[in-house]
């Protein structure tokens, strides 16, 4: 399986073992990594049977002022920004992500926040015979999970875990 990490994380895929398929024909990504996983599959000429998007970073319904504010907070103090970001990622669970910490860059954050999910890209992947699975947490403090659900539900098998947050863990 090819896996893409979330923003400011590395090695967190172990936290998602119950959702992942250990196969050379599977590509998966968490949050920011879900964006990268989609683009990888789209650009790849290799066979991919399953694309797993774990809490895909979905910000296209946010105002430009929200994105500017996030970038401004990151520039003002990236350590404090990432600390608060990771608290929001783990909510409502009590997961320690310190062993997975890999502080991201301003460019990565800008890419994450500015990424636009396009229905056509997902349709192209489905037309190749790739199964798309999306996992969302109902108590997500990072993204608007209901907006993401509305977007992804018609495009792939979508699982909405009502009491989970961005990390897809229950309290």
Secondary-structure blueprint:
Elements: E1 2-4, E2 26-30, H1 32-43, E3 50-54, H2 64-76, H3 78-90, H4 106-114, H5 119-127, E4 131-137, H6 145-152, E5 157-161
Parallel strand pairs: 1-2, 2-3, 3-4, 4-5
Helix pairs in contact: 2-3, 2-4
Organism: Sulfurovum indicum
Protein name: Pimelyl-ACP methyl ester esterase BioV
InterPro entries: AB_hydrolase_fold
Question: Could you provide a short overview of the structure?
Answer:
This is Pimelyl-ACP methyl ester esterase BioV. This protein has six helices and five strands.
What is the chain-wise order of helices and strands?
Answer: EEHEHHHHEHE
Distance between the termini: 28 Å
The CATH topology name reads Rossmann fold
Which outline best applies? globular
Major sheet: arrangement of strands: 1-2-3-4-5
* Strand portion: 5-15%
Q: How many domain regions?
A: 1
Mean pLDDT: 97
What's the CATH superfamily, by name? Alpha/Beta hydrolase fold, catalytic domain
- Count of alpha and pi helical runs: 6
CATH architecture: 3-Layer(aba) Sandwich
CATH class (first level) name: Alpha Beta
Helix content: 25-40%
Largest sheet: 5 strands, parallel
Cα gyration radius (Å): 15 Å
As residue ranges, the low-confidence spans are none
The total strand number stands at 5
Structural class: alpha/beta
Organism: Sulfurovum indicum
Protein name: Pimelyl-ACP methyl ester esterase BioV
